[in-house]
Protein 1
Amino acid sequence: MAEKKDPYEAKDTGHEWDGIRELKNDPPGWWMTGGYISIIFLIVYFVLYPSIPLVHGYTKGLLGWTQVDEYKSSLAEIMSVRAPFEEKIAKKSAKEILADPQLSQFALASAKAVFGDKCAPCHGSGGQGGPGFPTLADDEWVYGGTIEGITESITGGRQGMMPAYKATLSEQEVNDLVAFISGLNTGKAHDPGKAVFLGQTAGQADCVTCHGEDAKGNPDVGGVNLTDKIWRFEGTQEGIKRTILHGVNQEDDKETRKALMPTFGGKLSEGQIKQLAVKVFMFGGGKKG
Amino acid sequence: MEDVEAPATPTPGTLGKTVSPPPEPESTDPAVDHEEIEKLYEEAGHWDVNLGEETIHAKRIQGQFRRIKWYVASIYLLYFLGPYLRWDGRQAILFDIPARKNYLFGITIWPQDVWMLSLVLLTFFIALFTATALAGRVFCGYICWQTVWVDVYTWIEEKLEGHPAQRRALDKAPWSLRKFRIKAVKHSIWLTLSALTGITFTAYFTDAYGMWRDYFSLQGSFYIWVTPLPFLIGSYIGVGFMREQICFWLCPYARIQGVMTDPESILPAYDKGRGEPRGKISRDGSTKGDCIDCNLCVAVCPMGVDIRYGQQEGCITCGLCLDACDSVMEKVGRPTGLIRYMALVESGGKARLNILKRPRMMIYILILAGAMAGVVYGLVNLTPMKLTVIHDRQPLYIMLSDGSIQNGYTVKILNKTDNAATFKLSVSGVKDASVELLNENTTAPAGKMLTLTARVKVGADDAPKGVGSILFRVYSDGNPALDATYGSSFVGPK
C-alpha cells in the first residue's frame, strides 16, 4: 500500500542462524500508538479505580468506586421501581389487591420468591401439595378458601386437632366408621357406621362437632369435609383407620397425624403476606365472596 | 476469477508509462480528427494503476453506461425521501425499536414476525449471487452506495475544481485564497451530504419531522445526535477520501463476488484479438490492431485499473471504460465494442449457455423463489393477534373435591391491532370441558399483551388417562379478524 518500505533494508541486528538474519523492523506506527494509549489508559485507570493490592487493603482510587456501592445503587434502583406498588399494597387489603389486575400481577411476580422460600417446601412450587401437606391449587379448604381466610392462615399459622379414638371406640365401631366414611363419596351407605359417626353407639364418638352431621365439615374449626374426593390425609381404608385411631396432633401418640402450619405473622411483612395470599388464591382454588 | 491471458493485478508503476511521442502527422484520412486524438494522448498518457498513494481523478465520460448509472443512482433519492412519507396518519416506514414495532406502509411487523427478516436477507444474498453469476460485480458497478456516493462526490468535485488535470494541479498548488475557497466549499458540501446520509438513516427509526425540529432547537434524545455520526464519518472519509480503496481493501463482497463469477458471466472485457497489437494511430493507414493506445479507458476508470490487462480484482464492472472506448472508436472511425460486456467463453469463440442450462443459476433461482415465497406467505398471513397457551408445569393436574380434573394454563394474547379488544375463550377437544378465567379483565389494550390464567375442568370419567390434547380458541366479538386457535395438552391421572 502507501508504505512501500523494503523490509530487507531494515537495520541488521547482527544475529544470524544458518543464513537466516534477524533484522530490526519497527512495528507499524498505529500499533505502537495503540500500545501507548493502552499504557495511558492503564495509568488513568489505576489512579481512578481501586487496583493495587497492598498488605492491608488496597489502593482506593480517586473516584471511590466500589462494587458494593454499585450493588447498593442498583438495589436502590429496583426498590424505587417497586416502591409505588409496595405503597399501594400497604394501603390496600388483600381483597382489593386481588381486584386490581396490575397490583395482583405485581403480587404474583413479587411473591414468587417468598413462596419458593417459605411455602414450596411443603406445598410444592405450584401449590400441588404432597403426602400429608394440603394442595393449595384445589377447591377444598380446611380453613376456608376466601382471600381473608388464606391471609389469616398465613399470618397465624394452623394447627390441626382431632382426638384419637383408639381408647374409646371398639374394633367393630372403628371398622364400621371406616366403611361409612370411605362410602361417603362413592355413595355407598353404611348404617352401622353412620350410627358410630353420629355418636349413637357405646363409644360415643364425637365426629359431628367438627365434621357436622352431614359430614361436610366446618371451616371455622378446621373440620374437614369428608364427603368429597379430596383427602387431607390418606383416603385408603388403612389411612382412614389410622386417622381415627390416632387422631391429629396428639402429643402422646406416635402414630398420630401431624398437621402444623407455622405462623408467618412476625416473620414476613404484612405486604408480603398479602401478596402471598393473592398468589395462593390465584392457584385456582380461591373462593370468591 | 482471473483472466486467462493477463497478469492478475498490474504492478504499480509499470503501466501507461511507456507512451512514445506522437508520430508525425502524415495521414490524409479526413474522418479522423487528429488534433482531437493528440489531446487524448496528452491528457491520458500519464495514467497509472493507483494503489492508494495518490487520489484518482477519473475523467468523466458521456455514454449509455454513464446514463444507466445515473438512472440507477437516482433510486437513492427514495432513501432520502422515505422517512417523510406518511401512511394512515403515521410515518410510512418506521422501525420503532423501543416499541418493538416496524411499520412498512400498511403492514405492522412485530418481533414475532422477524423470521421473515431472515428470508429477506436470504433473498438479498441470493439475488447478489445470481446477479454476480450473470454479470459479475454488477452490484458494485451500478448499485452499491459506495460507488454511487463516490460518483456524486466526485461529480461535485469536478463542478468545483474542474477536469482531472485541473484537479491534480490544484492539489499540487501551494495554498492560496482561491484554493482554500474551493476546497472549503467542496468539503462543506461533502460534509452536508454525509450528514444528510446519517440523518436520513436515523429518521427511519424515529419520528422524522419531530427529529428535524429537535435538530433545529438543539434538543432531542442522545440517540438522534449520535446515530448519524458513524454515517457522517463513514461517508465523509470513506467516500470523500478513501474512495476506490474501500472496494480494494475493505469491502468483503468485492472478494466474495470475485469467486462467484464463472466463465459464463458477462464482464467488461477488452477484445484482445481485435485490439492487439495496440499502437498509436498513424496517418499512413496503419495495419496495427484497433486499440490506439489512447489510455482513455484507464483515464475514466474510477478504480484506476487498465481493463486491457483483463478482468482483475480492482474492476467493479461499472462500464465506464466501455463508454470511453466506444467514443474513441467512433472518433477514429472503427467499430465500437472493442471493450464490451463479454463472457470468458465468448472470448474463446464459443457462445454463452442459456442461463437455464447453468446448474448454479437454477439452484440460485430455486433458493430465491423459495425465500421470496416465504416472505410473501408471511406478509399475507400476518395475523392481527398472537395466541400462546402454556400448560402449567407444576402441578400437571389437580383433582377437585367432586373428583373432576383441573388443568391450569397461562394464556398470552397479543393484540396487534391499533384498538383495544376484549377477548373470549373457549376450549374443545376434551368432552365436557369447561373453562374458567381467573381474571376479570379480558381486554388487551392496543398493541399490548394480555396474560390470562385459565382453569379447564373435566369430569372424572371424561378426563384423559395420561396426556390428551385440547384446542383453545380465543376470539373477540368486536372484530372477526381477531380469532385464533392454539393446541395444548390436557393431563389426567393415569
Note: The first helix of chain B runs from residue 34 to 44.
Protein 2
Amino acid sequence: MDFTERSTRVYRTKQLYTKEELELRESRCVHEQPAFCAAVCPLKLDAREFARLCSEGDFASARAMLERITPFPLILACGCEAPCASACRLGELPGGEGLDFPALERAAMRLGAPRSGRGLLKFRKKKSAAVFGAELFTLAAAAELARKSYPTTFFVAESCAEELISRCAPFLPEADVLAEAERLCGMDMDVRYSCDLSPELFASLSGNYDLLCVSRDFLLELDASAEPDPVTLLCPSPGVLSRPSGERGVLGALYDARRAGVSADRMAQGMDPATLRGEEGPVVSRLHTDLSSAVPSRRTGEPRGGYDSAAARAEASRCIQCECVECLRGCAYLRHYGKFPRILTREIYNNAGIIMGDHMMNKALNSCALCGQCSVVCPNGYDMAEICLSARENMVATGKMSLAVHEFALYDQIFSNTEGFLARPQPGHDRCRYLFFPGCQAAAIAPEVVARAYSDLCARLEGGVAIMLGCCGAISRWAGRTELSAETDSQLRSALDELGNPEIIAACPTCAVTLGGLSPGGVRGIWDVLLELGLPASASHAGASASLHDACGARGDARTQGAVREIVRRLGFELTENGWSGDRAPCCGYGGLVSYANPEVASELARSCLDGPPDRPQITYCMACRDRLAREGAQSVHILELVYGVQAAQTPGISEKRRNRLLLKQTLLRDIWGEDLKNEPLGFRLDITGEARALMEQRMILDTDVAAVMRAYRESGEAVLDADSGLLSARLRLGNVTFWVKFTEDSEGYTVHRVYSHRMTVETR
Amino acid sequence: MPDDKNYYEIDPQGKLSCRKCGVPLVKGDAVFGYLDNAFPVQLPVCPKCGFVYVPEELAMGKVLSVEKVLEDK
C-alpha cells in the first residue's frame, strides 16, 4: 500500500461527536467543578480562593471578596452558619477539623484595608423601590436594591441606624454594630426612621414606587394568608417581595435578599421574575480531592479579639486547595500542553470541524501516547486516548491529516510486513501448536534475543512452534489509518491460517493486545510460557536491586504484570516500586507514535518513566520502552535480555533497526530452514560521515534512501558542484519526499557529508 | 504570495555548476508545489539540462516551515 499526499483544496469535514457525545465526554472531567466549600455557599463565596488569599496575607483582597457577595460583610462574618466549614474535606480526616471560615472572614474584615475610591460611576435607574419593616432580609434587600442603583427608600420603625442594625443582627458585637451602621449610612439609600408602619402607610405610599419589598411581619399584617413564591419571593396579591416562612438563619436571609434583588431586576424590565435566573444557591460539587497525602490538623483557636495576621495565615494555610489534577500528575503530555482533558477535548472537537484554515490542534492530538493512563488515574475514567484516536481517524477519513507526521512509521510497518516479514512453521511440522511473535521492535533492537528465544521455545515446547516476524499493525492503528490496519489484519490472519491457527506467544504486550482477535488459537505472553517451563539455563541471576517499568500494552492486564514480576524475582532482582507502576505507569513515548509527531513530548514522557538512580537497572518488558528509556540515559534492559543472557546494542539508529530486522530474517532462514538469501551488493563504496549519520537520524533519512540517491546519480550523472566546498549534491524523489545527498567522490565510491530532504516538489517553469 | 519572491539569495559568483553539463547554474524560474498549492520562486537552475538546485538552508528553512504550515491546513 502506498500513501499519496492529500490536497488542502478539498473541503470536507465529518462531525467528530454529536453534541450529546461531546458533553458526555466533557462531563467526566471535574477539574473545573467548584471546591466543596464554595459549592455549598448560597452566596457563592469562592471559599477556596478566599482561604488562599488569607494564607498569603492578602486580607484586602479577601475582604473585597466578602464585600462583593453581600452588602453587610460583618453581619455575614459574625452570623453565618458556615456550611463551608462543615463541607471542608479536612474535617473528613481522622482527628482533622474543617477550616474555620467565619473566623477567617472576621479576620479579613478587621485586617484587610477597605477598598479606596468610589468605584464605577453608576446611573440611577428610573424604577424606584420601597422597603418596609426591619429584619435582616429587608435590611439586606434594601441594600441590594440600592447597590443595583434603584432609588430606594427604606421605611423602618427604629429611630436610628445603630438601632436598626442591632434589631436586624442582634448577635453583632457593639463595635461591629457601629461599623455596619456607618456602612448603612454611606449607602445611596433613603432610610426613613421612626415610621408608623401600618397597612394604611403602605396603601398611601405603595403607588409611588415600582418595586416593593416588605418584612415577613409586615407582610402578615398586610395579608395574613400571603405566602411568597419560594423561588422568586414574589407575593402576587399585595405585589411585594418578601421572605418565605420558616427560620432560614443569617445566611438564608442574605441569600433571600440576593434572590429578591434578581426578581426585582426581572420585574423592573417587565419580565416574569421566574425567567432566566441562572444557577442560584448551593450546588453539589463532583470535584475529586485526593486526601491520601493530606495531614489531619486542628483549628487555630480564635482569641476573644479575633485572629492576628499570623494566626489567620496559619489557619488559612491549613487549606489544601482542593482540586483534581490526577491526570496531569501522571501524564507528561497533558502537563506539556497545560490543559485539562475537558478543554483539550473541546479544542480537538472544534479542530475536526474546521473546513478551511489552520488546524491548530493537529500537533496536540498527535502527541497523545494513546496509552490509557488517564483513564486509570482519573476518578471518572476520562479517556483521552479514545478521543485523540477517534480524532486522528476522523481527520484521516476527511483528508485533513498530514501524511508527513506518520509516514515514516507507516512505511516502517509496511517494511516489517513485506521485506522484513517471515512466517514459517517449525521444520518437521506442517501445522504448529504455537507461534512465536516477537514484535517489530524486538527484532529491530535485539535480534539475537529473538533468535535465542525462538530456539528455546522450539526446544522446550511440544507440537511445533512457528515464527512470525512482522508488525502487529499497532502503528497504523495509532496513526488512525484504518485501511492499512485492515490490510495488515487480513495479511496476518491468512498467514496464521496457513500455519494452522496456532496459539500466539507474543513477546510484546502491545502486540498481544493488537493480535488478540486475530487468531482463533488465542494469544499469551512469553512470560506466561517461561513461568510454566521455568527459566532457561542462560538466565542471568544478577541479584541486584532494580525498578520495573510497566508497559502501556499491559495496562489492566494483571496477569502479565504479575508474571513479569515473578520472572524478575526468579532472576534474583529486588524490585522497588513507586506509585506510578502497574496500571498507573506512564508511557515511554513510543505509544501513539508520539516520537514521530512530537519528539519533545516523547522525550518528556520517557523522562517521566525514569525511576531511581541512573545506574540502577530499569527492567522493561516492551522493547520500545527499553529503547526509549535508554535514550534518556536509563540503564534499561528488556526482561528477555536477562532471561537469555544477551545484551543488545544500547540505542540502534533508524537504519540499523531496519537492517537488524532483515538480518534476523536472513539468519533464521539460513540457520533453521537452510535458505540463503543473497543480499544485492551495492556495487560501490558508500561511506557516511558521523555528521551525515547524525543528520540522517534527526531528519529520518535511511541508508537505503541515501543509496538510492547515489545509484540514481551513477545512472544519470546529475549533480551540482559547489566550488567553495567541493561537494557534489545529487537528489532523488522517492515517494513523497525528495532526498538530497552532499558527497565527494573518488574512483571507488562516495563519501556522504550531509543529507537533507523536502516534501515539496520543484519544477522549472 | 507575490510572484517571484526570493527566499534564497542566489550566489552571484557562479560557484555552483552542473556536474553533468559542466556549465554554471543561473538564476531560473521554478515552482514549488505541495498539497495542491504552488509557489513560484527563483532558484539556481542549469541552463542546459534544467536541473533545479534546492540548497540545504532553503530546504531545511523556509521550505520546511511552509510545509508545516500547509500540513495543518
Note: Residues 56-71 of chain B form the longest helix (16 residues).
Protein 3
Amino acid sequence: MAQPTLFDKSQPGKRCTQMPSAAMAAEEFLPADQLRAEAPRLPELSEPEIARHYARLAGQNFNVDANFYPLGSCTMKYNPKVHEEIAGAAGFSRLHPSAPDECAQGALRLMRELETWLAQILGMDAVSLQPPAGAAGEFTSLRVFRAWHDSRGDTKRTRVIVPDTAHGTNPASVARCGWDVTVLKSGEDGRVAPEALADALGDDVAALMLTNPSTLGLFETRVLEVNAMVHEAGGLVYCDGANMNALLGHARPGDMGFDAVHVNLHKTFSTPHGGGGPGAGPIGVVAKLEPFLPSPRIVERGGALAWDWDRPESIGKVQAWFGNFLVAVRAWAYIQANGGEGLRQVARDAVLAANYIRASLQETWDLPYPGVCMHECVLSAKTLKNATGIRAADVAKRLLDYGIHPPTMYFPLIVEEALMIEPTETESKAAMDYFIEMMQEIAQDAAGRPDLLHEAPHETPVRRVDEVAAARKPILRWREE
Amino acid sequence: MAWQPHSERDRREMLEALGAESVDALFADIPAGLRETAMPDLPAPLTEMELVARAADLAGQNASLDELTCFAGGGIYDHFIPAIVRNVISRPEFLTPYTPYQPEASQGTLQAIFEYQTMICELTGMHSANASLYDGATALGEAVLLAADVTHRKRVVIAGALSPVARQAAETYCSAGGIEIALAPWDDATGQTDLAALAEMLDDSVACVALQQPNYFGVLEQMPEAASLAREAGALFTAMVEPTSLVLLKPPGEYDADLVVGEGQPLGLPPGYGGPLLGIFACREEYLRQMPGRVVGRTVDAAGETAYCLTLQTREQHIRRDRATSNICTNQGLCALAAAVYMAAMGPEGLREVALLGAERAHQLRDLLNAAGLEPRFGGAFLNEFVLRVPAQADAVVRELCAQGYLVGPSLARDFDELGDCLLLATTERRTVAEVEAVVDAMNALELEEK
Amino acid sequence: MDFPEDRKYAQTHEWAKAEGDVVRVGLTSFALEQLGDIIYLDLPEEGTAVEQGVPFGEIESVKAVGELISPVTGEITEVNEAMMDDLDALADDPWEAGWLLVIAPADLSQLDGLMDAAAYAEHCEKEA
C-alpha cells in the first residue's frame, strides 16, 4: 500500500524547522511587480511526522544493504560505511567551490591523487574528474574526439560506430555530439567481428565506441586488432568502462589501444547509487587529447596545487564546477583502502562469482553465449517462455517475493528474454546459493504453477504496477482531489 | 582492507562447482600481453583507521565554511541544513538502491521523487518537473537544446548577466550541435539585462531566450517583459531560477516561461566543493514529451491501489537511443530527495524566513558598506546577493579576506573583463548582524592598507 | 497468420488499401502485438506531405518506440485523430476502425511494389 503523501498529511500552521524572524518585510526591498502573490503550497508538517513519513517510504525500498541486487552492468556492490563518514567531513562537504586554491589544498591533493590513480588503473595519460555521470563521460570523451579532429582540420568525419550490444547512452551521446550512429552487428560469438567492422569503417568515421567487457559479459578478445583498424582508418576509439570491475589489475584500456575511457565511480569504485544518482563518470585520455579536456585542470604552481582556467583548446565545462567532488572523495577512499593488489582481488572475486552463477544455472536456463564470462552472465528465458509462456519479466517479479532484486531484463537487445546477472564481489557464497536455488524453483513453478509467476510479486508493498496507465495519462505531481 | 565476504573455502568451492582449475583460467580471454602490464602502481592499502586519519589530514588542509565566515555566492550558498535532511539521505534504503526501474521494489524512492516533482512545480508555478539533472549549469544546456529541437532554430540568446559556469556548460552542449549562442548585454547602471538590446537581437532564427532571476550579479531582472519579447519572436523563454527566492518572487509560471531550470544546491545540499549539486528542470505541459531525464508518475497496481513508477520512458536513451531527448541516465536522485526533505522541513513559512533573513542581511551589509564609502557596482534591486566594486584587483581582495577568515566572491575578474575590480557578496540566514559588521570592518581595514 | 487480402503491406508493417483515388493506411495486427500495450500515438496533421519509406509518425509502448513509415508518396488528406485518444480501439480493430491516415498518392502504382497478404504472412513468420 502506498503511503499518503506529505501533501495529504499537511495541515496549515504546522512547523518543523523554524528560523529567527526577519525584521524586514519583502515589500521593503522588492518592487511590487516582482512580488509573489500566493505562497507555494509546500507541505506543512512537524518533524516527527516527516521522520515517520520517510521511515515508512524507506521500508518500501530494496537496497544493497538489505537485498542481493544482481543488476547486470550496474555493479551493485556494497558501499562501505567509512566512505560516508569521510565524505561528510566539513573539510570536504562544507568547502565552497570559489574558495581560493590555497584554501583548498587538501581537496586539490585528493583530486590530483585520484586522477593519478585512475590513470594508473586505466593505463591512460590524463584524467578529468569533471563529468558527473557515465553518460556525461561518454559525451565529454566524444566532444574531446571532435575537438581533436577539428584541430587537425579533419571535419569530414560524421559517423560513430556503435555495436548493437551497447548501452543506450552510447548512441544518445553520439547524437549529442552532432554525429550519426552506425550500428555494428555483433559476430556469432557476441563479440565485435573485425570483418564487419572493416565494412563499416571509412574516412568519415570519427570513432568506434566499444564496451569492454561487453554487455554480454564477454571480453572483446580481438580488441587490439579492432582498435588498430580504427586508428588505421583515422578514427579514435572510445572504451565504455561501465564494466571495468572485471578488469581491475588484469587489463588496462590504455594498453588495449583505446584513446579515451570513462569509468563509473558509482559502479567499479563503490560509491552508492543513491536511488539513481549522484554518480560520477571521470574519463581518462591519451596524451594527445589532454589539451581538449574540460576546464579547469589541476596544475602545480610554485609547490602548491592550483586550478588552471586558461585552457584555450578545452571543450569547456561539462559540470558547473569540478565534478561530483564528494563522490570522488568516496572513490579515493576505496582505492586507498584496497591498493593495487586489493583491486586485482576485487576483479577476481567478481569474475569468480559471475561464473559460479553461470555454471550453476546454465543447465536450467538458456545461455546464449556459452563459455566463461567476465563480471556478469547473460541468461535467457527463451526456452522457458516457449514452453510455459513465462517471460523474463515474470521471473523478475517473482524474485522480488524472495527478497532478491531482479537482474537487468531485456538487455542487451540482441538476446531474447535476457536476464543479465552481475553478482559483484561483495555477495557471500550463501547469498548466491540462495539466489541460485530460487531461480531453480522459479523454473519449476513456471511449468507447475504459472499463475503464481504471472501474478507476481505477491509479497511487495504494492502488486504489479500498471506502467501502461501511468504513461497513457501521465500524473506527474500531487493535486488536491 | 577489503569488502569481499569470501573465505578461502568459499572460493575453492565455487571454483570446483564451475569446474575451473584456477581463477586465472577465468581471465584466459584477455591476451597475456595485456595482463602482464595491468597491475596499477598504487600506494599500499590502508586499514580503516589509517584511512580515516589520512582523509582527516587532507580535509584539514581545506578552509571549510566551518572555519571561514561565508559571504560567497555565485550559485553556491551557505544555508543551514536541518538535521533531518542528513538523517533521511543517510538511510541505506535511500542511499544504496539503483534507479527505481523495478517499481514494486522502489516505492519509497518513487514516491519521494513524485513529491519532489510536486514541490518544484509549486515553487516554479510550472506544469511538470523532472526527477533531476546534474546541476543548474547542465540543466540550462538541456533547456537550450530542447528549445532548438522544438523550434528547429539554431540560435540562442542568453543573458550576459547569467551565471558564467552555466553559460559555459550550455556552450559545450550547443557547440557540438551547431547551435550558436549570443549574449545579451546588461545595463551598466542597473545590472539588468538591456531589454532594448535584447529585442534587437531577436528574430525568427532564435530558438531560446534565457535569463537568470536574480541574475549572476544578484540583480532582479524584468522577467515578464523578457518573456514577452521571446514569445513575440517565436522563441522559447527559459528562466534560470534560485529556488529559495521563489518563495518571495513571482514564479516563472506566472510570466508564462516555457522552461525553468535552476541550481538546487540551496535546498539542503552542502557546498561540497561544487558537487554533487541538483539540476532543477520544469516545463510547460506541451514540452513534456521533449523533457530530458527521468520522471515519476502516479498510477495503480494490479489490486487497484495507488502506486508510482518511472514513466514516459520512451523519451529516454535506454529506449530511443540516438533519438532520445537527452543522453542522461544516472541523475542526482539522492540530491533531489535531500531537497524534498529540506522543503518539507522548512515548509512555506520556513522557506520564507530563509529568503527574508538572507535578503535582510544583504541589505544591512550594503548599508554598512555604503557608510564606509564602498558602493555596489549596480543599482538594480536585489535580494541576498550583490556586486561590490573594490578599489583594487578583486582576486587579491578575495585572498586577503580569506586569510582573515572571510570568504567573499567569487571575483568577477575571470569571467567579465570589464568587472575586474568587482566581486560578489552574498548572505544567507546563517549570517548574524555581528558577522556582517565584522566583515565590513575587515574590508575597511583592508582598503585603508591598500590606499 | 492470416491477413486481409484487400490491401498491400510494407516490410515495416504498415498496410495500405486503395480506395478509389486515395490510399488508407494503418498498422498491422502483427506489429501491434509485437509492441504490446500502446501508450502513445503521434500522427501528423492533414495536408502534410509524406514520402514512401520515410517516417510520418511514431507509436510507443511502455518499453519500445516504433516509427510509422509511409507506404506511398503523397499528401495526407485525413487523420484518424480519434485513435490518438483511444489507443485500445487501435489494437482491437487495426484493420477497419484503427486506420491512421488517408493519403492522396502521387503515384498509385507504388502500391504494386508492396507485399500481398501471403507474402506479408511469410515475412512475419520470419520476424516472429
Note: Residues 117-127 of chain C form the longest helix (11 residues).
Protein 4
Amino acid sequence: MSEGPLSRAARLLGHREAGHSLAIFRMAVGLIILHMLGALIWTESLAPIWMNPEDGGLRDQKVTQWLAVAVGAPAPSGVLALVAGAAAGALALTVGLGARIGALLTLQCLLALFSVHQSSGGGHDRLILNALWLLVLASSDRSLSLRSRLQTGRWWNDTPVAAWPRWLAVFQICLVYTATGLQKVNPEWFPWGGLEAVYRSLLLPSWARYDLSGWLGDIEPLLQAATALTWLWESSFFLVIAALYWRATRTRPGRARALSNRWDLRRAYLLIGIAMHLGLTALMELGPFGLISMSFYACMLSPDEWSAKLRRS
Amino acid sequence: MSTAPPALPTEPAPPALRVWDWLRLLLISVHIFAITVPAVPSPPSALTPKKLQERGAQQAIGGLSDALGAIGLELSEETLGGLVMTVANGVISAREAASRPFAPYYRHAGTRQSWRMFSRVADRPARLEVHRADGEAWVPLYVALDPEHAWAGRTLRSERFRAMINNFASKSGRTTYLGLVRWLTCRRLEEGHAGERLRVQLRRLAVPSPAVLRARGGLIEKAPYWVEERVVSAEACAPPGLAGPDEDAEGGPPDDGQAPPEGDAP
C-alpha cells in the first residue's frame, strides 16, 4: 500500500546527504559576521551606537533583552562581551569546530546587541540571525572543518548529515526575495511610475556610495530595465524551489520540468542574483546584506555538485 | 488441480516511521508557517481613506485600474480604492492574529521579518551636513557623498550610521539626532576645537526626473531642517543624563507627507 503525502513528507525529511553545501554556508556566515564586527571597530561606531552617552554613545539605551541585561549592556564591558562572544562563535563557525554551539552563542549575542539599538540595523541583521538559527539546527561541521580534520585526518568528509536544514535555507532565501519583490507595489517599480526605483535608489544620500547625480540621468533606459528586472527576479524567485524539485525528479515527465532542467533555471536566478548584489555593493553601502544573501546560495547547490566543482578545480 | 502462481519478488517495505520523524515534520512545518506569516505582502500599516488620497497611492490605484481595464475588468478608481483598503486591512489583521502565538519564537530565534525592503523609494531624501563657523561664514566639514568634505566620514558613512541618518530623512528619531549633534560636538572638542561654533543640519533634496537631472546635473537642494548650532565646549558635550522620550512619539510626520526611504537594504 502506498504512503500518503504526510508519511512521504515525514520520510523525506529523514534524507541524509554529505554536508559540503552546509559547510560552505557555515564558513561564509562565520566570515561575514567576523567582517561585520571588524567593520564596527574599524568605523569606530561601536561606542556611539551601542553605549550610553557617558561612554561615548549617542543616546541612552533601553535594554530589555535577557542576555543584554545579563551582561550589563549598554555599559562598555557588556557591549564588548557581546561583541567578543559573537566573534568567538563566528570563529568557531568559520573553522568548523563546535559549530552548533558557536552558532547559538553568536545568535544570542547578536540578538542582544541588535536589541540595544534597533534603528541602526537593517534586513541583513535579521537574515544573519536566520542563517545562525539554521546553523544551530544543522550538522554543518562534518566536512571542510577542523572537526573533520581532527576526527578523520581529512578536510573533505562525505559522512552524511540531515538534508532538511539545507532545504530550509533554500526556502528562507526564496521567501526573502519573493516577499520583498511582492511588497514593491509603489509606482516607481512599474511603467506607470516611470520605472524609476533603481534610479532613485542610487541617488539616496543615505545609501549611495558615490554622488552619481552628474551622469545617472544619461543611462535612464538601463536603469528602467534594471528596475523591471529586479522586480521580476525578486517576485518570481519562488520558482527556484520548483526548479530544485524538478531537478530532483528529473526522470518524471512534464514540459516545465524538462525546460527548467534543460536551461537550469536555478543557475539563471543565481547568476542574476550575484550580478545584482555585486552591482549594488559597488554602488551602495548596504552593509553585509549582499554577502549574507549570497551565502544562502551555497545551499542551492547539492553536495554532489559542490563535490564535483571543488574536486575538478 | 490448479497450482497457485509463484509469488513475485517485492521491494522491502520501508522502515516504520518513528515518533521523531513525525515530530520533525511538525516542527519544520510550524517553522515554515511562522516565518512565512510575517512576510505576507501588505502595506506597512493600516490603510485609511486619507492615505488612499496620497499621491503614491493614487498613482498605484490608477495603474492597477488601467491594468485591470486592459483585461476587461472595469472598476472605478474609487471602487478599486475601497476594495484595496478592505483587502489590505484584512490581510494586516489576519497576519497579526496568525503571528501572535509565535511571538516568543520570534524573540528568541530572531526569525520574524516582513522583508519589506525599498518597497517605496523616496523622491525627497535628505543629506546630513556639518559646518563650522569661520567668522560670519559657514565652512562645510562634512557633507554626505562629498569627498571634499568628509570629516568623521569613516564613522558617519558606515552602514549603521547611514541606517540611523536615513530615519532622520522622515523626521523620525529626533532624540538620536540630538545625540548625534552632541556626539559630533564632543568629537570636535577632543580634536582641540574648543570655542568653535558648529552647525549640524539635514538638507532636504528633491530627486527630479532623469530628464531634469540631465539638464541640471544634480539634485534639487531645498531648505535645511533640524538646524542645530552648538559652541564646542565641555558643557555642550555633557551627557543629557536622562533617557529621551520614545523615538516614535517625538518624530513628526515627514514634511512632504512621504514615507522615508526604508531602512532596509534591498
Note: Confidence is low (pLDDT under 50) at residues 242-266 of chain B.
